[in-house]
Design brief:
The complex is a heterotrimer. Chain A has 13 helices and two strands, in the order αααααβααααβαααα. By secondary structure, chain A is an all-alpha fold. Chain A has a two-stranded antiparallel sheet with strand order 1-2. In chain A, helix 2 packs across helix 11 and helix 3 crosses helix 9. Chain B has one domain: ABC transporter involved in vitamin B12 uptake, BtuC (Orthogonal Bundle). The longest helix of chain B is centred in the first third of the chain and has 31 residues. By secondary structure, chain C is an alpha/beta fold. Helices cover 39% and strands 24% of the residues of chain C. Chain C has ten helices and ten strands. In chain C, strand 7, helix 7 and strand 8 form a beta-alpha-beta unit. Chain C is globular, with a radius of gyration of 20 Å. Chains in contact: A-B, A-C, B-C. At the A-B interface, helix 5, helix 10 and helix 12 of A face helix 4, helix 9 and helix 11 of B.
Chain lengths: 324, 292, 259
């Protein structure tokens, strides 16, 4: 109970900080916002790849699914529903509608995750990777062929509802959900699948259920990230969700460490800031990315943090000990 | 009816190119159990070497093709030596991530070198069109098909008849045992990459000839599709890769002709998912039971 | 009364019969040994019983219910636990975590409980931990509970695997060569441990073993497999003197060469 109060307090602090950061220089503000979205993508992919040990490289597909659905809801139904809610203060009604739309996008991506997960998660390792990649591409081709969301021309006119506070809120929820999940008995079981699926099954674990479950939770948050992304850019295009995008998310978690939440946050940070730092050498950016990926695997295949977490508490304890 | 036969001809030409690329995938997978994501990009590099050899250096078609194959073979061996060999005992996932990294590296290096915009491929063989009873056949289609089939026959001879071919088969059966029998594993693996890359380069040059257009990202889709072809035929099985390539080529052309050209890129992935679910070992593959 | 009844069980790998027409029963609270030369199909029998392989034909009846076709996790949930020939611990996890994964079978807090840290979640977590620690204590592994499993000495890894199997709360325990890689004193200790867990947990045990001193010491009955077929069944004494068994182990005398 006390822990929940603490969580609530920290959420409030995070939201206040987010609110304050609105006075930042717009450039930094935007970087911070993308950092938040990338955090959601990385942490959720890490649940699938790092903790469950399933190798998905189709995360961008789920992001697209959630993003496009919530955007379509906003474009075609938003006004109408906000008008229904005229008895509420305008800002509040707008926020509520936005929350629900993003949530619906996430749930849709999560359901898609179940649908895709049931057949593909029977496959192992690299086959699974290719199948998820295939599904990611299929989702994109479907969007490409949907006139109602603009098809190949892109989908403009999405209202700008996303701000840093919303991003902070959803990142917080994503980290909290993944953290608590991983630290419960369910999470131990999920990790046991990564360690040895056969042994896990022999221990009475319904491995299919847990694999599909974590896959769909991962997909859910990718869908949320897509919704936030759509309502910030105000325009979606199928080319934002290519295989390249999935690889970028993969790079975040590989860099930070498969199986480390703090590592994912760190990886998301690096891959948000690095392109900005390399702005002058835009053409070199992708070369550096790919070299980083290769060198990472050759030198430190478990990522910078392995599966360890950085904890403030432990750091303070260590610091205090050193001082003595 | 004429229409369908026409599309079949087009599909077989396209399929023979997929088959050439798929062969490299299947051989590397057979030996290293690695999906060499960079393979599609080796194909792209092959096309560019062909572009320079035929265009800037003005070589005739066959020597130009040969130069492209040689250049890509060397590139393939370099990639294997520096990116994959150090990871040979690492988890397969690390290897896969590295392969993705190499793939992106090759693409972006190429963008850096020649720019991202498409270039038109030197037309070193002038187009001739034959018409027979409503069917259209070009000399390029004939050249593509005969080069592809010729190379496949050569490959089959190398794998079945030569000493190194036997060593390749031994390594793909049981690497440790092959090593104990005195086979130089490193050499066999390097040779496999060289062979696969050379075939991919040939595919690249033929694509240039067929579609007239090349660019640094041209390898991504054909690479993935060729992988699908390899899985479809039964990964690790050389005739399977050829079969898979032809089937995929035909399926794609038929779908884009009779359903819609925009869903054409999804065909391969739908086939992939169906085959993985129904018969993961592929058309020619044997069912393997996982050992507990 | 039989706990497990195997009837006319057959299983083939690519035309080769790994198990053919095998029938036997395991009675409540007995320790039944399965022995046989390498490749006789012993582990295949385990994989069939625990649902990892599907038999070609035949029935496997556990407590009156045919379990053929059930998934491995469902079979574990019905009360059959197993160890593996080569220990398959969750190597990178701690000793305690290894056991707590197996106790998940009786975990009664939902995902929502763990997200909201409800009272039930806390209760279930501590219940699980207690049960796991109790088991580790019984196996003398308590002091090692926070160590990474792969860092344990081999003998203790074997013990941990048994502890983990017991954490699923089985009635029937399948042990696949528990004494493999152990020296004589270690395997005698294991013999004691196995009899002890049978008493304490009211178990029926099916055991594959190569170490004859283990088999002869604790098994009430033994079945002998060769080429997937049962060639003998009986008390250790009977089996030891059965000519077919001796032949299977030592091979046929080649007439005319030795004489």
């Amino acid at each position: 109970m006390r822990k929940n109060v603490l969580v609530l307090i920290s959420l409030i602090i995070v939201l206040i900080l987010a609110q304050l950061s609105k006075s930042l220089d717009p450039y930094f503000y935007q970087i911070l916002l993308f950092f938040g979205i990338n955090t959601i993508l990385a942490v959720s992919l890490n649940l699938i790849n790092g903790f469950t040990g399933q190798f998905s490289i189709g995360h961008a597909g789920f992001m697209a699914a959630g993003g496009y659905l919530s955007a379509a809801l906003s474009v075609y139904q938003g006004e109408k529903i906000i008008n229904y809610l005229a008895f509420l203060p305008k800002d509040f009604a707008q926020g509520l509608v936005f929350f629900v739309f993003v949530l619906i996008g996430g749930i849709f991506a999560g359901l898609l995750g179940i649908l895709i997960g049931i057949p593909t998660l029977r496959l192992k390792g690299d086959y699974l990777a290719i199948a998820t990649l295939g599904f990611g591409e299929i989702i994109r081709v479907i969007i490409y062929n949907m006139e109602i969301v603009g098809g190949p021309r892109g989908f403009p006119g999405i209202p700008k509802y996303t701000d840093i506070t919303w991003v902070a809120f959803w990142s917080f929820i994503c980290i909290l959900v993944v953290y608590r999940l991983i630290h419960s008995s369910h999470g131990r079981v999920i990790i046991s699948i990564r360690e040895d699926e056969t042994a896990s099954e022999a221990m009475g674990v319904n491995t299919t259920f847990y694999k599909v479950f974590s896959f769909s939770v991962g997909a859910f948050f990718a869908g949320i990230a897509g919704g936030l992304f759509a309502h910030y850019l105000m325009m979606l295009h199928p080319s934002s969700f290519t295989f390249m995008r999935s690889v970028e998310i993969l790079l975040m978690i590989v860099l930070g460490g498969l199986g480390s939440i703090t590592g994912s946050v760190f990886g998301a940070f690096v891959l948000t800031v690095l392109p900005e730092a390399l702005r002058g050498f835009a053409h070199l950016r992708l070369i550096i990315y790919s070299l980083a990926l290769i060198i990472m695997m050759l030198v430190k295949p478990l990522g910078l943090m392995g599966n360890k977490e950085v904890s403030l508490y432990r750091l303070i304890k260590k610091f205090a000990k050193d001082r003595e | 009816m004429i229409d369908i036969i026409q599309q079949l001809i087009n599909g077989i030409s396209l399929g023979s190119i997929y088959a050439l690329i798929a062969l490299g995938y299947t051989m590397v997978y057979g030996i290293l159990r690695l999906i060499n994501f960079a393979h599609g990009d080796i194909f792209m590099v092959g096309a560019f070497i062909g572009f320079f050899a035929l265009g800037s250096w003005g070589l005739p078609f066959v020597p130009g093709l040969f130069v492209a194959m040689l250049g890509s073979a060397i590139l393939g061996m370099i990639v294997e030596r520096f990116a994959y060999r150090p990871l040979r005992t690492a988890p397969r996932i690390s290897l896969l991530i590295t392969a993705i990294g190499v793939s992106f590296l090759l693409e972006n290096l190429m963008v850096l070198l020649v720019g991202a915009s498409p270039r038109s491929f030197p037309q070193s063989i002038s187009l001739e069109i034959y018409e027979m009873g409503g069917l259209i056949l070009t000399n390029r289609q004939i050249i593509i098909l005969s080069i592809a089939i010729g190379l496949m026959i050569v490959l089959q001879l190398i794998v079945m008849k030569t000493k190194i071919g036997k060593a390749m088969r031994a390594v793909s059966q049981d690497r440790e045992m092959a090593q104990m029998l005195g086979i130089n594993i490193d050499r066999v693996i390097a040779f496999t990459f060289a062979l696969g890359s050379a075939l991919a380069a040939a595919g690249g040059v033929l694509v240039g000839l067929y579609f007239n257009k090349i660019e640094p990202y041209m390898g991504v889709m054909p690479g993935l599709k060729a992988f699908v072809a390899a899985v479809l035929g039964g990964i690790g099985i050389i005739p399977g890769a050829m079969l898979g390539g032809f089937i995929l080529g035909v399926a794609e052309v038929l779908v884009s002709a009779f359903i819609s050209s925009t869903v054409r890129d999804a065909v391969a992935f739908v086939i992939l998912i169906v085959i993985l679910l129904v018969r993961p070992s592929g058309i020619l593959g044997k069912h393997m039971r996982e050992k507990v | 009364m039989d706990v497990l009844k195997v009837k006319n069980l057959s299983c083939a790998f690519g035309g080769l019969m790994a198990v053919s027409d095998l029938s036997f029963e395991v009675n409540k609270n007995e320790i039944l040994g399965i022995i046989g030369p390498n490749g006789a199909g012993k582990t295949t029998v385990f994989n069939l019983i625990t649902g990892f392989y599907l038999p070609l034909k035949g029935d496997i009846i556990f407590k009156g219910k045919n379990i053929v076709g059930l998934k491995p996790y469902q079979i574990t949930r019905l009360g059959i636990a197993r160890t593996f020939q080569n220990p398959r611990l969750f190597k990178k996890l701690t000793v305690l975590e290894n056991v707590m994964i197996a106790t998940h079978i009786n975990y009664d807090a939902s995902l929502l409980d763990s997200l909201l840290l409800t009272k039930r979640y806390l209760l279930e977590e501590s219940k699980q931990r207690e049960k796991a620690e109790e088991l580790l204590d019984f196996f003398g592994l308590y002091r090692r509970k926070d160590e990474i499993a792969e860092n344990l000495p081999y003998g203790e890894q074997r013990k941990l695997e048994i502890a983990r199997a017991l954490a699923t709360g089985p009635e029937l325990l399948l042990l696949d060569e528990p004494a493999a890689g152990m020296n004589l004193s270690e395997s005698l200790e294991l013999v004691n441990l196995i009899s002890l867990i049978r008493e304490k947990f009211d178990l029926t045990i099916l055991l594959i073993e190569h170490h004859m001193e283990v088999v002869m010491n604790i098994c009430e009955r033994i079945i002998v497999l060769d080429f997937g077929m049962k060639i003998a069944e009986g008390t250790p004494e009977e089996v030891k003197n059965n000519p077919r068994v001796i032949e299977a182990y030592l091979g046929k005398e080649v007439k005319g060469v030795i004489h």
